[in-house]
# Entry
Amino acid sequence: MGRYTAVPALLILLFTAACSGANDADEGSHTPTARPSRTSPGSSSAAEPNGSSGQIALDLPSGAKILVPMTKGTGNADLPTFKPITDVYTIHATCSGKGKMTLVDRKAPGDEPARIGCDGPITIGRVYTDITPQALSVQVRGGSLRWSIAIVSGEHSM
# Structure
């Protein structure tokens, strides 16, 4: 399990590298939240698979095996649990508006969340992991923004 114990750190590194420079102005005031917020049926936050208008397309690789279809939202949301086909999967994410978007591993809520830069290029990050079910959440803090995310199996060019 040597390389798999570093998955949370790799997730953070990949997203940070993909988003270098995004939202740097207030980075010093960032205090991460360790627990994902579940979206309740009556909340104002929303996540919708596909079909929502007003979002940026993620331009997923052709022929890629989709693990989590493109999902769009405006607040906190639990993504569907998925099981990778290989020991790597690729996350494509984008957001726009005011606030902060982070991605949290629901199975390791004490780990540092991965920050997704908003109002910039699409974030693409590879995650190396065991072939076990993965449970991720989107968290939105400090404003209102709209986000899109999809997860595909394997490594794809960035």
Q: What stands out?
A: The radius of gyration is 15 Å.
